Each structure stands twice: as structure tokens, then as C-alpha cells.
């Protein structure tokens, strides 16, 4: 599935291809109607750029290639067309026509920006430096050969070099900042994610609970514990125990929030209204049963303690209630959900036996 960033880039590139077609069409028409000595250059380069814009727009639209590949192809096309202007003028005309300096300067800056956006830091720096030095040398040779104002040209090229250095610094900072942001996001994700199951870890679960506590809606909080997990590990080994935890996590992650709270203990949060949340928790256990059924030649069951958390109630108190309910579920025979404080804070606790709510159910 295409990401939002990739979709946005493709949209911008479609617009860029459209404006590129309009520009090349206007320059080609101007060259056909005029008698400028530079018309040959435009009649050769502009149709080539137009063909590339059409091909690129088609490829972007049907998504047959990555945008990165098109960016590098565009860099080659733009560089060849923009930087061939100066050698053409010097070889074909013998001088740089009036007004061409500005066009050459725009072409060089465009190539530099595309190079920094497309290439790696070192490659872009080498690419832009090569273009700049070649451009500067040809401009100075043209002035010296035609008794032109070479000192003014030199000053202009030094100012251009300063601009390119600033561009290089800006893009290096941008790349470094983007990498630092990505690294920070990755580290933050790792700090809140359980490495084995991919669920939230305890810290991530606590952060979620803190966030929910500031809201105006209640939620269902449940603690689930794998029954006889130590015996399962002893019988089948720790790798199989890890496989069981991952399978359970895949089933439980359908909840609004799920965290691996401890070794074989999971925190489950459902933000539906209370009656629906209770029903959803029961359905979630059956769904999880489908994920682990037949995984091992023995039943894999969960005991759960669940409580409804009213708005403003400290989650630590609710967690203690769910923990006590979990102990009651274990003491009552395991493979069951024990509800406490459902919907109304003062309602008596209710319970569901394993025959109706457990993972190893027959219903």
C-alpha cells in the first residue's frame, strides 16, 4: 500500500511534468517563430525535455517505477540540457549572447538543487562542484577571448559559489535533521514497544493509560494471564513459549490498545461504551482462540480480570481491581473472565466461566 508521503510526491511530480510541458511548448514555439541564432539549441533540447515530461508523467500516474528512479533520470536530463547551453554558444556562436547569462545561472542553480535533493551528500557536493568549476572556467575563458569584463564575471562567479555553499550547508543540515528525527522516532518506538510481540511494552501501556485518564470517556481495562505458562515452557521449551506469546499477541492486538504487561501477562484496553466493551472482550477471547488453536498438543488458555474505568478514576486503582479479578479467575478454575465494577461503579461484580468466555471454549 502506497504511503501518504509517496502519494504526495507523485502528485507534485505530476504538476511539475505539466508545467515542464507548458514551458517547453512555449520555448519551442518561440524558437520556431523567431530567427535567433540560439533557436537550434532550443529546437533540440526542448522537445527532448517535453518527451521526458510526458514519459515521466505516464510512469508516475501508473506507478510503474519508484519516484527516486525518476528523480535521478530528471537530474540527468536537466543537467544535459541546461549545461549544454554554454558549450553550444561558445562553439556554435563563438560568444555568449546577451541575456544568456541569467538563463545559464538559473540552469546551474536548478541542477544544484536537484543534485542535493537526489544524490547522497558527498555525491551531490562533487556533482555541484564539477558543474560550478566547469561553468566558471568557460565563462572566464569567453570573457578573456572576447575582451569581456572578466573581473565582473569572476566576482559574479564567486557570489554564485557562495550561494552554492550555502545551499550545500542547508541541504546537509536538512539531511542531518531528517536523519536525527528519524532516529529519535525509531528510538522512541523501540522504547515503547515489546521486542518479542511488537505490542506496547509496560512503559507504552502506562503512557496510554495516562493519556486515557485525561479524557472524558470511560474504558474497559483487562489483565490477561496465560494459564500454566511455566508448565508449558518446561514441557515444550522457551522457543515454543515465545511462539505462543506471539500468537496470543496477534489475536489480542485487535483491541484498541494492547500491551505486554509482564512475562506472560497482557494489558487490554477497549474504549467502546461499557456494554459493548464487555461483549467485545468476550469476542476477542474467541478470536484469539482461533489464533492459538492447534498450536501445541495441549490447550492454551487465558484467565482475565476486567473492570470498567470511569472518567477521572486513577488507572492505578482500576489496575489493582483488574489484578484482584484476575486472581479470582485463577482461583475459580482458570480459563475464564472475571468482571468487576461493570458499567456502574457500585454494581456487584459479575463473572463469566470458561465455558462461555474462555479461550478453550465449547460455545
UniProtKB/TrEMBL annotation:
Keyword ATP-binding in record: no
Keywords of the record: Membrane, Transmembrane, Transmembrane helix
InterPro entries given in the database record: Diguanylate_Cyclase, GGDEF_dom, Nucleotide_cyclase, Rev_trsase/Diguanyl_cyclase
Coiled coil residues, start to end: none
TM ranges: 12-34, 40-62, 74-94, 100-117, 124-142, 154-173
Domain GGDEF: 217-342
CDD domains membership: GGDEF (cd01949)
Listed Gene3D superfamilies: 3.30.70.270
Domain of life of the source: Bacteria
Descriptive protein name: GGDEF domain-containing protein
Species classification: Bacteria, Thermotogati, Deinococcota, Deinococci, Deinococcales
Amino acid at each position: 500500500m502506497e504511503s501518504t508521503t509517496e502519494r504526495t510526491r507523485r502528485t507534485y511530480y505530476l504538476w511539475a511534468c505539466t508545467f515542464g510541458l507548458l514551458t517547453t511548448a512555449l520555448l519551442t514555439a518561440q524558437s520556431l517563430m523567431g530567427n535567433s541564432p540560439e533557436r537550434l539549441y532550443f529546437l533540440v533540447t526542448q522537445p527532448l525535455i517535453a518527451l521526458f515530461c510526458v514519459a515521466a508523467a505516464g510512469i508516475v500516474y501508473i506507478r510503474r517505477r519508484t519516484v527516486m528512479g525518476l528523480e535521478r533520470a530528471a537530474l540527468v536530463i536537466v543537467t544535459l540540457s541546461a549545461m549544454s547551453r554554454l558549450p553550444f554558444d561558445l562553439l556554435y556562436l563563438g560568444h555568449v549572447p546577451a541575456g544568456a547569462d541569467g538563463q545559464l545561472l538559473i540552469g546551474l542553480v536548478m541542477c544544484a538543487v536537484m543534485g542535493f535533493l537526489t544524490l547522497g551528500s558527498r555525491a551531490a557536493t562533487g556533482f555541484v562542484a564539477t558543474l560550478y568549476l566547469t561553468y566558471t572556467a568557460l565563462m572566464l575563458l569567453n570573457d578573456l577571448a572576447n575582451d569581456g569584463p572578466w573581473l565582473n564575471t569572476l566576482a559574479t562567479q564567486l557570489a554564485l559559489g557562495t550561494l552554492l555553499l550555502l545551499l550545500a550547508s542547508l541541504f546537509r543540515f536538512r539531511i542531518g535533521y531528517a536523519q536525527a528525527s528519524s532516529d529519535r522516532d525509531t528510538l522512541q518506538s523501540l522504547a515503547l514497544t515489546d521486542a518479542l510481540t511488537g505490542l506496547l511494552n509496560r512503559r507504552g501501556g502506562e503512557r496510554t493509560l495516562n493519556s486515557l485518564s485525561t479524557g472524558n470517556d470511560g474504558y474497559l481495562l483487562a489483565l490477561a494471564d496465560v494459564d500454566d505458562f511455566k508448565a508449558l515452557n518446561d514441557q515444550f521449551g522457551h522457543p515454543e513459549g515465545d511462539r505462543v506469546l506471539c500468537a496470543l499477541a496477534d489475536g489480542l492486538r485487535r483491541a484498541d490498545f494492547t500491551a505486554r504487561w509482564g512475562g506472560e501477562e497482557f494489558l487490554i484496553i477497549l474504549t467502546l461504551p461499557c456494554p459493548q466493551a464487555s461483549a467485545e472482550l468476550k469476542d476477542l477471547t474467541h478470536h484469539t482462540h482461533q489464533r492459538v488453536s492447534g498450536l501445541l498438543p495441549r490447550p492454551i488458555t487465558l484467565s482475565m480480570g476486567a473492570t470498567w474505568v470511569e472518567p477521572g478514576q486513577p488507572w492505578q486503582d482500576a489496575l489493582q481491581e483488574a489484578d484482584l479479578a484476575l486472581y479470582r479467575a485463577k482461583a475459580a478454575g482458570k480459563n475464564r473472565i472475571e468482571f468487576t465494577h461493570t458499567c456502574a461503579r457500585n454494581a456487584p461484580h459479575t463473572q463469566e466461566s470458561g465455558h462461555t468466555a474462555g479461550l478453550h471454549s465449547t460455545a
